[in-house]
Design a protein that fits this description.
The complex is a heterodimer of chains A (about 130) and B (about 100). By secondary structure, chain A is of the alpha/beta class. Chain A is about 25% helix and about 25% strand. Chain A has a five-stranded parallel sheet with strand order 6-3-2-1-7, with helices on both faces. Chain A has a two-stranded antiparallel sheet with strand order 4-5. Classes of the chains: A alpha/beta (about 130), B alpha/beta (about 100). At the A-B interface, α4 and β7 of A face α1 and β5 of B.
Amino acid sequence: MATKKFMYVNRKAPYGTIYAWESLEVILIGAAFEQDVALAFIDDGVYQIAKGQDTTDLGIKNFSPTYSALGDYDINKIYVEKESLDARGLTVDDLMPLKWEDEDEDWAEKDSIKVVSADEMKALLDESDVLLNF
Amino acid sequence: MAILHTVNKSPFERNSLDACLRLAAKGSSVLMIEDGVYGAMKGTEKSAAVDSAKGDISFYVLGPDLKARGISEDKLIDGIKVVDYSGFVSLTVDNDKVQAWL
């Protein structure tokens, strides 16, 4: 089976609706199929990977630590739109430091998150084979 | 690769249309469906953004959703094409993939 480029497009904040959690579930299931997977965080989707989430008092699962495990599933292309961060007064320092280990470079730890402009995001969507929207 | 973008939220309630217009590449198509059809109307605070994107993007709106909401075609921004359900299917087939701005 030929490898396809999958792009998961995330545009919703994490706890108000089920979209973010569902997206993460599908990403993890999809990871088992050895496709070329990338994630896009746009608009309120950037809040999904914000640092310091603590749902203890809500009595629901805090699924944000799961994003840190994505590197172990070879998911290391995480694109965040700069315009969406700017609009919310956020920078990459407000996001969780998502990392992956590069097997080809003696397991050197590298950043998975890449902040891209709207124009770069436009091109990334364009060159994907499959878009999954959440 | 050609993308069909669908927008199904009112532009006055959500930013789906704004996001679509910001991230749709030249040559792509945008189809407004469900409450997204309000974005096809002229004389709104969103009309200018759609109007200025018309050169790069082809706009379509789903007829049955217009009709349900009492929006006649003379209220639409010039150049937006009205399609029926089979037109929706054709757009899906004619493009490589669909980006749904939920």
